[in-house]
Write a structure and sequence with these properties.
extended
Length: about 200
C-alpha cells in the first residue's frame, strides 16, 4: 500500500471512528437531559467508560487547615455555601503553582475539573433555554460565556484574588493592572456598562 492509499485509509478510519464516537456521546447527552448526571455516570460505567463513583468524602483527611473568617464569608457570598466538607480543598483551590505549599497541590487539578463542570452547566443552560440554536451557534455562545475574560471579571468582582497563596512577585502588579484596565474601560461583565462599583 503506497502513501496515498494509506493516507486515504487512515482518513476513512478517522471519519468512521468519529461517527461512532458521536453516537455514544449523543446517547450520553440524551441520558443526561432525561435522567441527570448520576444516571449518565452509571450508563458510562455499563459502557466501561467511567469508574465507580465515590459518594462520600473522608472528613478525616481534612488536615489542619481552618478557613479564615474573611475567606469563609467571601466564599459564602460567592458560592452560597457556608461550609465545605474538605477544607483542605479550599486551601488547594487558592494555591498558585508558585506557592510552595507542600501540604496541598496547586489549584491546577481543581481548575481542570472546574473547566469541565462549567462547560457542562453552560451547555445544559443553553440547551434548556435556547433550544432553537444550531450547534455552531451553541459552540460560539458557550465560548463567550466561559471565556477567561468573563471568569476573570467574576473572580475579581468576588474578591477571591485577595486570598491567593503565591510566591510570584509579579502577580500583585498583574492583578492590579487587570483591575485598573477594567475600571478605566468602564466595562462590566459583557464589556458594557460601569464597573467601578463592581470591583473590590
Amino acid at each position: 500500500m503506497d502513501y496515498a492509499e494509506n493516507s486515504e485509509c487512515m482518513e476513512r478510519k478517522e471519519r468512521g471512528s468519529k461517527l461512532h464516537a458521536d453516537i455514544i456521546e449523543s446517547l450520553l447527552g440524551l441520558i443526561f437531559f432525561h435522567f441527570g448526571y448520576k444516571t449518565t455516570f452509571s450508563v458510562g460505567g455499563e459502557l466501561l467508560l467511567t469508574l465507580a463513583c465515590c459518594e462520600t468524602h473522608d472528613n478525616e483527611t481534612s488536615g489542619n487547615f481552618v478557613i479564615p473568617q474573611q475567606l469563609r464569608e467571601t466564599l459564602q457570598r460567592t458560592t452560597d455555601y457556608p461550609s465545605f466538607q474538605q477544607p483542605q480543598l479550599v486551601e488547594e483551590a487558592l494555591a498558585h503553582a508558585s506557592s510552595g505549599n507542600r501540604k496541598v497541590s496547586s489549584y491546577e487539578r481543581l481548575e481542570w475539573v472546574g473547566d469541565a463542570v462549567i462547560c457542562l452547566a453552560t451547555r445544559e443552560w443553553l440547551w434548556n433555554n435556547i433550544p432553537q440554536l444550531d450547534v455552531g451557534t451553541l459552540v460560539t455562545m458557550e465560548s463567550v460565556m466561559v471565556s477567561n475574560e468573563v471568569l476573570a471579571f467574576l473572580s475579581v468582582k468576588s474578591g477571591l484574588h485577595h486570598f491567593l497563596e503565591h510566591r510570584d512577585h509579579t502577580l500583585p502588579s498583574r492583578i492590579e493592572s487587570y483591575i485598573c484596565t477594567v475600571q478605566e474601560d468602564r466595562c462590566g461583565l459583557w464589556g458594557t456598562g460601569k464597573a467601578h462599583s463592581e470591583i473590590q
